[in-house]
Amino acid sequence: MRLAPLPVRGLTDLSIRERFVAAGMPSLAYFNAYGGLGREVPRTPQLRDHLLSHTKPMNTLEAIPDMKTFLISLTKRMGDSLIRDLSFIPDDKVNTSPMGCARPALEFITECGGMNLYAGKIIAGEDFQPKSYEERQAFYATMDTRGKAVEFFNRGMEVLQTALTNATDEQLARDVKAPWGEDKKAYELAVIAVIHMAYHDGQVNYIQCLFGDGTNHWAD
Q1: Distance of alpha carbon 18 from alpha carbon 22, whole angstroms
Q2: To pair with 179 at 20 to 30 A between CA atoms, which of 8, 25, 111, 160?
Q3: What pTM was estimated for this model as a whole?
Q4: Is 104 exposed, middle or buried (0-12, 13-18, 19+ CB in 10 A)?
Q5: Would you give the end-to-end CA distance of the chain in angstroms?
Q6: What tens digit of pLDDT does each residue of 113-154 get?
Q7: What stretches of 65-185 show up as alpha helix (H) in DSSP?
């Protein structure tokens, strides 16, 4: 199905649920039952009636989360996935450089923790300056055990999720600076933090494979 375009006036206008409202859909019960956002709404009356009879009708605004709720959920899901995948790398390999030049897995965890910490503090309106390259490298060297890196990562996650939970639409739509100096909206910074975790999660999975574990633990 096609979502109706909306003029961008603020963060609320960007929410998926409002696009469905604009599309004139009073209920998404059969749409949700059919598989969610990734599939086409069933067109035949017979299939629609069957699905409607097996689902509880719901209001569109209840069925589709707003952007902030979605970001909070996605942030937690990606953070949990990253730490879970790290658990499959043995302790004697978790801070080892594959092939002698690649970055160790703990450095990815620490970097993600730092990005989440930065994003959370900026979204919360704090004056928080990014660290220099030299400062980051020195800090990475101190995160030399799984426990230290995961503790720092969890701190960043808590700061980011708290900031998102407490932020208003106006706060999320305000102009901020990314750590590298580029102008972004506050909610874009949160999206970047999630993408950043997903990027490094893929590297953690690949390091797991380089050290001899070829099992796809996502299926566990």
Answers
A1: 6
A2: 8
A3: 0.71
A4: buried
A5: 33
A6: 999 999 999 999 999 999 999 999 999 999 999 999 999 999
A7: 67-86, 105-123, 133-142, 146-166, 169-172
State the sign of the Cα–Cα–Cα–Cα dihedral 167, 173, 174, 180. positive
Closest among 143, 133, 136, 75 to 104, alpha carbons compared? 143
Q: Is the dihedral of CA 187, 189, 193, 198 positive or negative?
A: positive
- Amino acid at the residue 149: A
> Closest by alpha carbon to 177, among 127, 111, 117?
127
Kindly report, residue by residue over 23-72, the tens digit of the pLDDT: 433 333 333 333 333 334 444 566 555 545 555 544 544 545 688 898 99
- C-alpha R_g of the chain: 21
Amino acid at 24: G
Contacts of 45 (CB under 8 A, 6+ apart): none
CA-based diameter of the chain, in Å? Answer: 65
Strand-pairing partners, residue 177, are: 183
